[in-house]
Amino acid sequence: MVVVLSGNFRGQGPSKIVSIDRNSKRAIVEGINSALKHVKRGHPKSPQGGRVSIPVAIDVSNLALHCPSCNRGVRVKSQVVDGVKRRLCTNCQKVL
Ligand SMILES: [Zn+2]
Predict the structure, then answer these.
(1) Ligand 1 centre from 76 Cα, in Å?
(2) CATH top-level class of 2-89
(3) Which residues of the chain have pLDDT under 50?
(4) pLDDT at 43
(5) What pLDDT score was predicted for residue 47?
(6) C-alpha span between 27 and 18 (Å, rounded)
(7) Which DSSP string do the residues of 44-96 spell out, in sequence order?
(8) What's the CA-to-centroid distance between 25 and ligand 1, angstroms?
């Protein structure tokens, strides 16, 4: 789960990440930043044609991981425990 730090959707979340493009460092987040695309008849999502809501990716630098115990977006640090890398909340030290 992530929260949005800046832009039109600032303060929104926690929402689920749908997908991440690691090369362009952009992510599609559920319910955040969608656009209406006008489509002709026969489109799989809208057989009659009209407007279809499509998700638009936002830059991952505008996102922060949501910590359930702090209830806000937090920075993370990593720690290796028994050879397994874990993400810790810098605020409350809990594993995310
Ligand atoms: Zn925390």
Answers:
(1) 9
(2) mainly beta
(3) none
(4) 83
(5) 85
(6) 7
(7) TTBTT-EEEEEE--EEGGGEEEEETTTTEEE-EEEEEETTEEEEEETTT--B-
(8) 24
pTM: 0.77
CA of 75 to the centre of ligand 1 (A): 9
pLDDT score of 42 = 84
Ligand 1 centroid to Cα of residue 78, in Å, is: 13
Q: What is the mean pLDDT of the chain?
A: 90
Contact in structure between 31 and 59 (CB atoms under 8 Å): no
90 Cα to the center of ligand 1, angstroms? 7
Q: How many whole angstroms from 93 Cα to the centroid of ligand 1?
A: 6
